[in-house]
Please model this.
Amino acid sequence: MEFEVSTTERVDVVDITEQVNRRTYSNAETCTVFVPHTTAGVVINENESRLLTDLEDALSTLVPKEKGYQHDELDDNADAHLRAMLLGSHVSIPVESGELALGTWQSILFVDCDGPRTRRVLVR
Model:
């Protein structure tokens, strides 16, 4: 199963927990969320606005936009590719009684590093 996520900023974080939960079967033991894009990623963490701002700041500190990456000669988005590599393209979540077994403050967060765009998310 899959669904789309639309972002509005170049670096944008969208909570996709409910969309994933709606696509989880009661007989599943594990749910895998996969982002089939090279400039976006998915993580599990707290969906708190100040933390999300800190995430964006950390990504821009670790991988600055204007560094003169070789790939920028092609698409001018090397920073987005590098940031996505740090985030990862998938997460796996245990399923208990048909529900995602996330911790109290955990959410599944889609992170677009090269938006705004409409992206696909696969759930298995």
